[in-house]
Amino acid sequence: MPDILIAPSILAADFARFGEEVEAVDKAGADWIHLDVMDGHFVPNISYGPEVVRAVRRHTKKPLDVHLMISPADPYLEAFAQAGADHITVHAEAGPHLHRSLQAIRKLGKKAGAAINPATPAESLAHVLDDLDIILVMTVNPGFGGQSFIKSVLPKIAEIRTMLEGRPVDIVIDGGVTKETAGACAKAGGNVMVAGSAVYSGGTGYAEKIEAIRKAAK
Ligand code: DX5
Ligand code: ZN
């Protein structure tokens, strides 16, 4: 099993202090910084776009893991790449052609990710397993931070790890990840834990909160 990585999501940070909030989790041991981009169309919420990614880029050298909850995504891939994203993840459901989107991301020199909603089966990724670096499994319905983990998604994580047949693909678990749920996610085969509210809510002490999730996932 690959090492467990922790990716705090700045969706739960103080939007007026992104720079400091990113530096704080960087210093606290974050492995990646997760950025949730929402368009008010693919998901019922609007967050931020490439200019925020560009601004955050100046505050950390850690990989910027950009999760696009937008449809269509293709017209914006270049803008996110130029803004400093290291990983760009598109939703399989966002369409129109997942394979084309992943190829476009790799052509931009970035790691390519495919995300699936809780209701989307693992098989929807079977045709792109050699075209991606990251699979993001949503364990809440996308759109908001602070929702409860959907436990029934766990078998799908294991199914995807098996489907990968040893390919070096990161399985990112996103939504409701806490020190209480991270153990089951890792056991099923997830190796990257996105954590928004579990890190940023309830005040600072980010290092303790990140380490608690990492320890629970070991
Ligand atoms: C939800 C986003 C998540 C979110 C996770 O649509 O994709 O990344 O920020 O937040 P928590 O950890 O609070 O569930
Ligand atoms: Zn996300």
UniProtKB/TrEMBL annotation:
Keywords: Carbohydrate metabolism, Cobalt, Isomerase, Manganese, Metal-binding, Zinc. The active site is at D36, D174. CDD domains: RPE. It catalyses: D-ribulose 5-phosphate = D-xylulose 5-phosphate. One of its GO terms (biological process) is pentose catabolic process. Its EC number is 5.1.3.1. Substrate binds at S9, H67, G143, F144, G145, G146, D174, G175, G176, G196, S197. Binds 1 divalent metal cation per subunit. One of its GO terms (cellular component) is cytoplasm. It is an enzyme of class 5 (isomerase). The keyword Manganese applies. It comes from the Bacteria. A divalent metal cation binds at H34, D36, H67, D174. Its cofactor is Zn(2+); Co(2+); a divalent metal cation; Fe(2+). Belongs to the ribulose-phosphate 3-epimerase family. NCBIfam families: PRK05581.1-4, rpe. Catalyzes the reversible epimerization of D-ribulose 5-phosphate to D-xylulose 5-phosphate. This is Ribulose-phosphate 3-epimerase. It comes from Terrihabitans soli.
